[in-house]
Amino acid sequence: xxxxxxxxxxxxxxxxxxxxxxxxxxxxxxxxxxxxxxxxxxxxxxxxxxxxxxxxxxxxxxxxxxxxxxxxxxxxxxxxxxxxxxxxxxxxxxxxxxxxxxxxxxxxxxxxxxxxxxxxxxxxxxxxxxxxxxxxxxxxxxxxxxxxxxxxxxxxxxxxxxxxxxxxxxxxxxxxxxxxxxxxxxxxxxxxxxxxxxxxxxxxxxxxxxxxxxxxxxxxxxxxxxxxxxxxxxxxxxxxxxxxxxxxxxxxxxxxxxxxxxxxxxxxxxxxxxxxxxxxxxxxxxxxxxxxxxxxxxxxxxxxxxxxxxxxxxxxxxxxxxxxxxxxxxxxxxxxxxxxxxxxxxxxxxxxxxxxxxxxxxxxxxxxxxxxxxxxxxxxxxxxxxxxxxxxxxxxxxxxxxxxxxxxxxxxxxxxxxxxxxxxxxxxxxxxxxxxxxxxxxxxxxxxxxxxxxxxxxxxxxxxxxxxxxxxxxxxxxxxxxxxxxxxxxxxxxxxxxxxxxxxxxxxxxxxx
Length: 513
Known about the structure:
10% strand, elongated, alpha+beta, 3-stranded antiparallel β-sheet, 4-stranded antiparallel β-sheet, 10 strands, 513 residues
């Protein structure tokens, strides 16, 4: 075997073709890298731009300006959050008073409403929430709050202090700190059952707790067999230092009610559902802000109208009345089917004849127009005689109504149909509207005056306008004065962008026929 070393091979230099191929491959790789880098950079820019738009631009975008006070999108979200917390706080008050599993027949039980509001609060402030359109009604509410606070300070030097706010809160909610045991029945909470003007059974529960934007809350409930416990009455106003301590106890009670509802959720519930999205301090801040706004409005009303004028000649906007109905055709109820209340319904105000509920409750005989007119004539004589009896003894009106009125719903109340406005809308009874002839006759009367028989599609009505309670009248006058004052504040204010103009109704052109 030879030990001579093998000759080393020398590599050939690359050919031009190979060099060109290598350059092409390097160029392709460079372009791919550049393209990927550009795509990654663009995606990063989009992400950063989206975050900046969502976190900086959107929250800082101006929605409304009122005399220099600015509402940005971020502040709008905060205002919407406050409004939701106020509504939830109202539900917590009902839950504390009546029990978590009770309800007023709408929106589910109180604990279900609290859970739903808690879920809404979890969504507020998120990107999805900011994509929702602006609620114009909520913006108008913010505008009114600004105008009220600014006008109260400038014109009346009204600026409630923290101690005064706590006094107002405790005067209305102080009893929540020692609420008696709530109702444990799962039935719907209801008050006194009555037959309404629409012929349907309804009930009203009045609670001494504030609504989200009002100092009084009247809740219409479905009538059932359960009865609510006695509503705690407002307590005497304590001194400022004592009020602060008492207010903290009320806030503790409400927050414990809130967390207790969430903790009672089953273990399989979503973690976000069981999480409290409101802190105790936030609840305190929101409630105190609500009562401060209420206190400002109350003091403006008191400054505008100190007492009922000795001679009030202003045209009333609300009237209270009672009536006696002689129905045509005569009602023929069965023992299990009460006669309908024939004063009015929203539908009856527009169309003649009884409503579907009334037709179902009272068998209506088939009568010719001539027979109907004969019945109207016959009952007119009866109504005239009854009118003369009442004129001779006006104090007997409630007793006569209980005995003679065919409107069984109001007859049980001495003929009282409540308080209603010019459109016939009965206060506290949503959807219950009196017919136009009845309303016109009632507004034409003086207090305690009795009308001659008034004909409607239901029969003959004898109406007595009842005096307005002094306290109710003072509240009405103050409310009307405040609305007028707030309207003037709107006209004088600099609002950007300005509210849309109210469309002007064009009267119909009279035609000669």
